[in-house]
Structure formats: structure tokens, C-alpha cells
Amino acid sequence: MAISERKSIGLRRFMEKTPRSLELYKKTLDVMPGGATANIKFFSPYPIAMEKGRGSYLYDIDGNEYIDYLLSYGALILGHGHPDIIEAVHVQLEESGTYLFGAPHRLEMEMGEKVKQLYPSMERLRYTNSGTEATLLAIRLAYAYTGKNKIAKFEGHYHGGYDQVLVSVNPPVHEAGSERHPHPVAESKGVDPYHEKHTIILPFNDLDATYDILKKNQHDLAAVIIEPVQGGFIPATQSFMDGLKKMTEEMGILLIFDEVKTCFRMGLGGAQAYYQITPDLTTLGKAVGGGYPIGITGGRRDIMELSAPTASADVFDVSKSRHSSAKDVLFHSGTYNGHPAILAAGLATIQVLEREIWHIQDMAAKLKAGIAKLFSERGVGMQVLGLGSIFNIIITEQESISNYRDLQKADFALRRELDFLLLAEGIYTKPLNRYSISAAHGEKEISRTLEAFEGALGKLC
């Protein structure tokens, strides 16, 4: 039977297996707008409500078991409930006797030293509570250091849900201008139009066009912020990264690596180790906390020292005799920055990865190769795209995918139907989303996943 005649099978089977998720979703509509507390957690017709997780598995409120490849969008690099993380958090709570100090503590230094070893470009660093907060701080530092008031980002790249960067993440192509000179497109209601003028959009993996745009705006641009691997799965070419580093240096524009998605996924040193590029500023998140909320901003000492509270007065200084004002220091604060339990979890995560990251990379390689083989055997054009333990499945006849525009030519309808069939077979990721592998995924899970793919593809083509 042709693919077009099979379109509703996956969705029907999904809904048959998840009636309690639908029931809970309907009730939740009376509590939260759209039935979700974060837009990213929703998918149509309704998201699956989970009850528990263990290792590489999730269990929903209908009792269905899933091999989890979403892993909280890559954050759970050790899987659910890893014993080393549980033990580290338990020990921290038992020894300190509190959840939170609200003051400096030993783990801030210990975690910072370990991160600096893995990311030598981060000569000084600060903790935040999310990757979004980390990129926000990096941009503020860039503004302060350069005295300029614009930034540049790449079309298709996501850096958080705030106005400055919530531009041209997934824009309608017909609104986005030419491929070589993209127009800024706001991606949310309520975004101040100011940011469409002060956030310059660049074409990813097109060095000549990027140079032209940067050169035109170099006197206004504080920084270029980039996901070295777009969305975690479309990698920059080495020549593009080398060229971008060179041109930003020549033009006096800071280079910010947003490694929230690539942190530990391409190796312990992230994308900058892979590309051998030293950015001016780096932001980390997701996997660095092993499932706990954390972000880290770090970079060159001279830039990061702008946030030092000893430099002058800040917004919390109520002294009447001070000789400087709050505007003389870059303000960054947060009650939960450097939360002791979270840093204990982060250190435990790194310690496990130092022993087991090879296993995660090996399982990812086997799964990617197996999926590609199954598609090839059925004559369906596709690419398993990504480096390390994070990847995506792009159903397309294109030979290469190097940017957002290329991605838009993929067969999303077929991919969505495949995803619902896989959900019905106990393979979990949010439809159309990427896959991540954890330390808890083993040969058994990879084999079961490939069997589910084979069965799903048999129903579709």
C-alpha cells in the first residue's frame, strides 16, 4: 500500500494506547494555558503524560513502557535516576544539612575547576539556572565589553526564549528573505520590534555571505552567537568555523559558542574541542547538570571580570557613600546560581562520563548505522544527521543538509507518521525531534529500537 494511504495508522495506534494521557490533558486545560507549562512539552493532538523513569526507560500513566530517546531534550546523558547522581545529591544534603546556602560554598569552586579543565576557553565562569539564562548573560557581557548594541545570530539557531534571540529560529521561508541575506522574523507574539532591527540574521555554513553581512554591520555588532551544530544535529563545516573565527577577530566582534546542546554530546570538550576553535564566550547547559537545572557562562578573563561584584557598586549596594553607581558594574545574580545539590549532580555526571562516554558514543554509532541501513534497504532517501550521541532523522532525497533552508525540504509528514508508529511500539521522542543516547542505553535497547523501526517502515513503505 502506498505511503499516502497509510497516513493515519500511527496516530490511531498512539491514541488507542494513551487514553489516560488524553483524559489528563483535557483536565489540564483548566489549569494551564493550552494544557502545558512549557510550549516545548506539547505536541498535537496531546502530549504523553509520564509517571516514572528508570535508566533508559519511561513509563506513562497508561502503563506503557518506552525506550527514551528524548532524554529531556538531551539533558539526561546518564539516563533516568542514575545511582551516582542520586548518591551525590543525597551525600550533599546529608553532609551540609540544607538544600541551599545563599552563600559561597566549596562545590562552586570544585565544579568550576572541572569545567575549566574540559573547556580551557572558559578562563572564568558563572553559574546560571538554565541554558537560556547562560546565553542571556553572555550577550550582556558582549554588549558591556564592546560598547556596541547589536548581535548577530544564524537562521535556524535557538538560544533561548527571550526577545533578543527569539528571531528567525523556524521562520516561514516565504517571510525570511533570500537564503544569502535572511530577513529577521520574530518568532513570538510580544517580541519588541526593536530586536528585529538589532538582531542581525546570518546564513549558516555560507562563509562568503556571512562575511558580507558582518562587514556591513561590524561597527554595531557586539557579538556573533552560534550553535556550532545547528539544533544539535546540523554541523558546521570546519572551513566555516575557521573562517568565522578569523573574521570575528579581524572585525572586533566577540564569538559566542552556544554549547547548551553539544555540551558532552560531541565529547567531554564539546564542539570547540571538535573544531579546535577557541570562542570568546561559551554557554553550557542541559547535560552538564545530569538532569538538574543549570547553565554556565564562561570565557576570556577580561570579559568575564566585568561581572565581578568587587569592581564597584551594584544594584544591591544601598550605601550612601559609594563613589560609583550600579551602571558601573555588569549585574548578574540569582538566588539559585551554583545550587549545591545541582553542582553535586553535575560533578557526578562528569565523573561517570569520564569512564563511560565511549559507551554512549558507541551505542549512538550503532543505532545511527542501523537506522540508515533500514531506510536504505527500503529505498527511502534519508540522512541520520548529527555528531556524537545526538542526532536526527531527516527524510529527504537531498545529498547534503547544511542549514535551515535545506532542512525545510524534508518530508516532515512521513517523519511524523513514523514517529507515531514508533511511539505505539514503545520508542519515545517527541514527534519530529532529535534523538539522544544515554549511558543507560545498551545493546538490548538498540536492538529493540531497530526492530521497531523495521516494523514501522514495513507499515509505511
Automatic annotation (TrEMBL):
Q: What family does the entry list?
A: Belongs to the class-III pyridoxal-phosphate-dependent aminotransferase family.
The answer to whether keyword Isomerase applies is: yes
Descriptive protein name: Glutamate-1-semialdehyde 2,1-aminomutase
Enzyme class, UniProt record, top EC level: isomerase
- The residue range of the signal peptide is none
- What cofactors are annotated for this protein? pyridoxal 5'-phosphate
Q: Name one GO molecular function term.
A: glutamate-1-semialdehyde 2,1-aminomutase activity
Matching Pfam families? Aminotran_3
PANTHER family given in the database record = GLUTAMATE-1-SEMIALDEHYDE 2,1-AMINOMUTASE (PTHR43713), GLUTAMATE-1-SEMIALDEHYDE 2,1-AMINOMUTASE 1, CHLOROPLASTIC-RELATED (PTHR43713:SF3)
Q: Which organism is it from?
A: Siminovitchia thermophila
Sorted UniProt keywords: Isomerase, Pyridoxal phosphate
Supply the EC number(s): 5.4.3.8
